[in-house]
Structures are given as structure tokens and as C-alpha cells.
Specification:
This protein has helices spanning 4-10, 26-33, 46-56, 70-77, and strands spanning 16-17, 20-21, 37-41, 62-66. It contains four helices and four strands; from the N terminus they run αββαβαβα. A hairpin with a 2-residue loop joins strand 1 and strand 2 (20-21). It is an alpha+beta fold.
């Protein structure tokens, strides 16, 4: 399972928790996501869309995308 710090690193953001700097742990993130089933809520929004692109690169087994905007969600699938 991903820690909070690793989750934020997937989004490409610098993380600083409890006064400690966390380095990018690409290997740990890849191990956690590759072959997993992932659910992304708000997938058609700007942050959700960026998250979909980043996580798709880790080759999850299944990527479930949920959003209330059906038209934008359909664009992501194409």
C-alpha cells in the first residue's frame, strides 16, 4: 500500500511532511500500481486527468475512471 507521501509523489508534487523531505520513490510506486486495480474519482477534471495519465504509465491491471461529466470522461477513453 502507498503511504501518503508516495501518493502525492505520483502526482508529481514535492512533499514535505513532519519536516522531512521525501525523495521520489518511483520503484515503490511502480511496484504498488503495476498489475493493480485503481479507482480514480473525478477523472475528467484537470487534476484527475493528470492523475489518470501518470497512473496509466505504471500499467495497472484495471483503471476505473469515475466522473459526473460523461462527455469529458469519454474523451479520456478515446
Amino acid at each position: 500500500m502507498l503511504s501518503e507521501a508516495q501518493t502525492l509523489q505520483v502526482l508529481g508534487r514535492s512533499v514535505r511532511l513532519f519536516e522531512q523531505d521525501f525523495e521520489d520513490s518511483h520503484s515503490a510506486i511502480s511496484d504498488a500500481l503495476c498489475g493493480s486495480s485503481i479507482l480514480i474519482l473525478g477523472a475528467a477534471g484537470s487534476i484527475g486527468g493528470a492523475t489518470v495519465e501518470r497512473i496509466a504509465g505504471f500499467r495497472p491491471k484495471v483503471l476505473h475512471l469515475v466522473d459526473s461529466n460523461e462527455n469529458e470522461l469519454a474523451e479520456i477513453v478515446r
